[in-house]
Structure formats: structure tokens, C-alpha cells
Design goal:
Layout: H1 18-30, H2 33-42, H3 46-55, H4 60-67, H5 78-111, E1 116-119, H6 121-129, E2 140-144, H7 149-158, E3 162-163, H8 171-174, E4 180-185, E5 188-193, H9 206-211, E6 214-218, E7 221-225, H10 228-245, H11 250-260, H12 268-277, H13 281-294, H14 302-308, H15 314-321, H16 328-334, H17 342-360
Parallel strand pairs: 1-7, 2-5
Antiparallel strand pairs: 1-2, 3-4, 4-5, 6-7
Helix pairs in contact: 1-3, 1-11, 3-5, 4-5, 10-11, 10-13, 10-16, 12-13, 13-15
Length: about 375
């Protein structure tokens, strides 16, 4: 059995300009393929940029899906095209296994009366990216009702799933400071969620997400999926947390940009009003501002851009994503956008730290059985 993966850091040791990663991802997202072709023909780092987007930012399947057949495809160096083909082929195989895995999870959790709601993974690809394998992912994410957390964990472990995350001082207390745990069965990876965030004063309730969910057919099976505005809200919360950890991948911003397209211009005021009632308006605005700035999407989203004005300069937005000592720079960026004051957040952060580290840090993974 392969070892549990250690997360790669998306922004260190790139051996190419990070601005080029943002340029390529944003240009492909906007469909500016002639601009990509000109860049590919003139850039000496095109192969390395594609490599970093594929290996560090999980954007290889997205790039391959959008670029194949475009004016830019033949302009890419042969090694870059080969890397994207490899990435797409690996994702296609992963997707087939994930679809089979979903069926297994529905059977296992359903046998215990635990309804599941699919998050990210193939669901996000199918609904917003054009195909189940048009975005990069390795694991499955599913959400269960918070009242079903313990039962879901028990039935998964009875079915042979190995919990990689550690409970610090027991599952009941640890689950108050964590929103998910990681499981593995063979080479299959699973993130089991019972809420979307444990940040203080966030009021996005799991029961409400289930009540507002929409039906989605995946591989001939019916599942519950998030309503598009809830999908966007969850992605924004997740990205806000990843930025503070220094692990924001550009694929996450691509996902946000794709889901943004489903929000009508006239609905943005109502969207932010809902986020305000849930304590997530500040972080939603902050992350959306970064996405619009980095990917040059302000002109295509005039209403949203006006609501977020002034947008950060691109260099300022990119600097937020770079790692710093102890993640201090990203945490300073995040503080003004939290729904609570600095003292409240500091007390929560210190109190919750051992619970969060035990559950999610790769150094504290529970060893796989031999």
C-alpha cells in the first residue's frame, strides 16, 4: 500500500515566475487562446510553468480540457503537451475510480441511515467545469449531517476504512474544533465532513445545506449536491482557510471562477446579504477580490467588481498567496475579514490548535496498517 501523501507547497521552489502561473491559468479560463499561443512561443519557461500548474496546483486536467483543439495547443512545447496529456489521463483514471467509490460510499453510509451530500471532486467538474475529469482531484469529499458524524465514522471503519486523522482528547471534543477527518481504504482517499468550517461565528449550518440541496445524477446514481450559491460560499470559505495555511492552489481559484458564472449579476447583492447573515461576508469579499484581480475578471463581472471596489492590485493579490514565516503575512491579511475581533480569534486559534494539528497535519497521521 502506498504511503499517505504529504501535501506539496504550491508556491515554493517553482523555478519559474509565479506571475506566469497566474497568467496561463487566467488566460485559459477567459478563453484567450491566441494570447496563450503567443506566450507559449516566446516563453523559455513554458514547460516548467505547465509542470508547476499540473503538479503543484492540480490544474493539469483543467488546462488539458480547455486547451486541446484550441489555437494554443500546437503552440505549446511538445514536453508541455505531453505533461498535460499525462495529467488528463491520470485524472480520467482517478475519476473512474472515484465514481465507483461514490457508489460504495452511498451503500455503506446509506446502510446506517446517513444521507450524504457530495462536495467538490467529480460533482464540481460535472456541473461547473464541463466534465467530471476536467478538474484535478485525488480524493472524494462528502458531507453528512452533524448528528450522524459518529455513526458515519463507525460504519466506515467497520467497512475497512482507516482513519488517518487523530482525535485529540476524544472524537466528541475534537469534532468541535474540526470540520472533517481523512480516511483511506487501499489507494482510495476520503474526506468526511460534518460541517463546512469551525471558524468562530460562522453560521452556515449543515442541516440548511441539506434542506437547500439539489438532486444530481452521477454515473447513473442520484445524489444530493449543493445549490450553486452554497457551492460558491463553501469554496470561498475553504480558499480563505487554505490561504492562511499557505496551501492555496490555483485550481481552487479556477473552481471559484467557474461557479461565479452561475450567479446572475443581479443576484450579487442578495448573495452578500446571505453571507452577512452567516458570518462569511468579509472572507467571501476578500477571496473574490483576489480571484477577480489575479485572473483579470473585473471587466467580465462589472456588478461584482463594483461591489468589491477597490480591488487589490495583482502584485498585492499574488503576495497574499506566498508563504511567510509562520504564515504571518496571510494571517494579517485574513484578520480584517473575520467575523470576530482579533482577541476572540486569537483565543479560538490557540485553544483549537492542538485539535486541528492532530487532525490535519501530516506529521501526526495515524500510521497505515501493515
Amino acid at each position: 500500500m502506498a504511503k499517505a501523501p504529504i501535501p506539496s507547497k504550491p508556491w515554493t521552489g517553482l523555478d519559474c515566475r509565479p506571475e506566469d502561473l497566474v497568467f496561463l491559468a487566467g488566460s485559459v479560463l477567459r478563453g484567450e487562446f491566441e494570447e496563450v499561443a503567443r506566450w507559449a512561443e516566446s516563453s523559455k519557461d513554458a514547460v516548467q510553468v505547465v509542470e508547476m500548474l499540473a503538479s503543484r496546483h492540480r490544474a493539469g486536467p483543467f488546462l488539458a480540457f480547455r486547451l486541446k483543439g484550441s489555437a494554443a495547443w500546437e503552440a505549446l512545447p511538445e514536453a508541455a503537451r505531453a505533461r498535460l496529456v499525462k495529467s488528463a489521463d491520470l485524472q480520467a483514471a482517478t475519476t473512474r475510480d472515484c465514481l465507483s467509490h461514490l457508489g460504495e460510499l452511498r451503500r455503506i453510509l446509506g446502510s446506517a441511515g446517513c444521507e450524504l451530500l457530495v462536495l467538490k471532486g467529480p460533482e464540481l467538474g460535472m456541473r461547473f467545469a464541463g466534465a467530471a475529469d476536467a478538474r484535478g482531484y485525488r480524493d472524494l469529499d462528502v458531507l453528512v449531517a452533524e448528528k450522524n458524524r459518529q455513526k458515519a465514522c463507525e460504519v466506515l471503519e467497520e467497512a475497512g476504512y482507516h482513519r488517518l486523522s487523530r482525535w485529540f482528547l476524544g472524537s466528541s471534543l475534537s469534532s468541535r474544533f474540526n470540520h472533517a477527518v481523512d480516511y483511506r481504504k487501499g489507494d482510495r482517499l476520503l474526506d468526511l465532513h460534518w460541517c463546512v468550517s469551525r471558524l468562530p461565528s460562522i453560521g452556515l449550518k449543515t442541516d440548511d445545506l441539506f434542506d437547500r440541496s439539489v438532486p444530481l445524477e452521477i454515473d447513473g446514481m442520484m445524489f444530493c449536491a449543493l445549490r450553486p450559491d452554497d457551492e460558491l460560499a463553501v469554496l470561498l470559505i475553504s480558499a480563505f482557510a487554505d490561504i492562511q495555511r499557505g496551501y492555496l492552489r490555483l485550481q481552487s481559484f479556477v473552481d471559484i471562477a467557474n461557479v461565479m458564472k452561475r450567479v446572475p449579476e443581479a443576484e450579487w447583492i442578495a448573495f452578500f446579504r446571505r453571507q452577512s447573515s452567516q458570518g462569511t461576508e468579509g472572507m467571501s469579499r476578500a477571496v473574490l477580490g483576489l480571484v477577480l484581480s489575479l485572473f483579470d475578471l473585473a471587466e467580465a463581472n462589472p456588478k461584482l467588481s463594483s461591489l468589491l471596489s477597490p480591488l487589490p492590485a495583482k502584485a498585492e493579490a499574488l503576495a497574499v498567496l506566498f508563504p511567510s514565516s509562520g504564515g504571518r503575512a496571510a494571517k494579517r491579511w485574513a484578520l480584517p475579514h473575520l467575523p470576530v475581533g482579533r482577541l476572540h480569534y486569537a483565543c479560538w486559534w490557540l485553544t483549537s490548535l492542538p485539535f486541528r494539528v492532530a487532525a490535519s497535519h501530516h506529521l501526526f497521521r495515524r500510521p497505515l496498517p501493515s
